[in-house]
Write a structure and sequence with these properties.
With about 325 residues, the protein is of the alpha/beta class. About 30% of the residues lie in helices and about 20% in strands. It contains 8 helices and 11 strands. Helix 2 crosses helix 4. The chain is globular.
Length: about 325
Amino acid sequence: MATDPDAEVDVELFSMVRVYKSGRVERLTGDDVVPAGVDPDTGVASKDVVIDPNAGISARLFLPDVSCLPHAKLPVLVYYHGGGFCIESPFSSRYTSFLNSLVAKAKVIAVSVCYRLAPEHPLPTAYHDSLAALRWVASHADGGEESWLTEHGDLGRLFVSGDSAGANIAHHVARLAGISGLATGARIKGAALIHPYFWGEEPVGSETRDRETREKAERLWRLVCPGTTGMDDTLINPLAEGPPGLKGLACERVLVEVAGDDLLRERGRAYSDGLKASGWGGVAEMVETEGEGHVFHLDNPASDNALAFMDRLVAFLNRD
């Protein structure tokens, strides 16, 4: 009896995504959607915008209550969600809740980018979409169609951030902005990389040597980036030998957050050390939260460690 390729699983990874032999993709989590609007707990307003209808790039914008800040120009944060490049969106409950809280506390405008997901849109699509979104935001330094950015945003205080795969994206858009530049008047002040999704062929530090775990990590990377040169591709291992290196990162300071029980911890540590040794002219800071796992601040936002993490991120965005 012939098997149905639309029902036969080809690969399933990290309880995130299941790909069938027919090519059909099933996402196992991260596909919920909550509407934009005014959050009753924080007073933060949000709305959804289309950045490029042809490419399918969109975003959810967040604006704090400006009634007590009528003449203030606020920093602008461009945020990239995590999810292994293959799940989640800015419209999910966890990211909407997180950014409502961050925007209320930091008094920033946030642009949470909806980039196209792998494996239907393999890398480097997410990087291209994310850079296009950053350029769209930066273009409002000299006016633009989005009133929240033109009326309330200070594009001279522009930040990029993300968690996990989104932190990987934040690194690469800061690197690409250093090559191609942004609109006049727009400047990336800082990049906050939260539990960044980096990896490599050989273990670093105390990183796991377990063969099965490392092979599983490699399968995920090859699923989302089938054209990769391998696990020392600079897209996944920015410390690999050869160009582009870290020296041209287009921001003044970088915050790297790692978690003590996270599989990716050692990569974040190595990235911070590598950045400091690269000749890049900015200031890098790394903070490790002991006893916590990957993206713990999203899983348990009311915990003491998550609240301390939020305070650090707010301070980073508000620092002169």
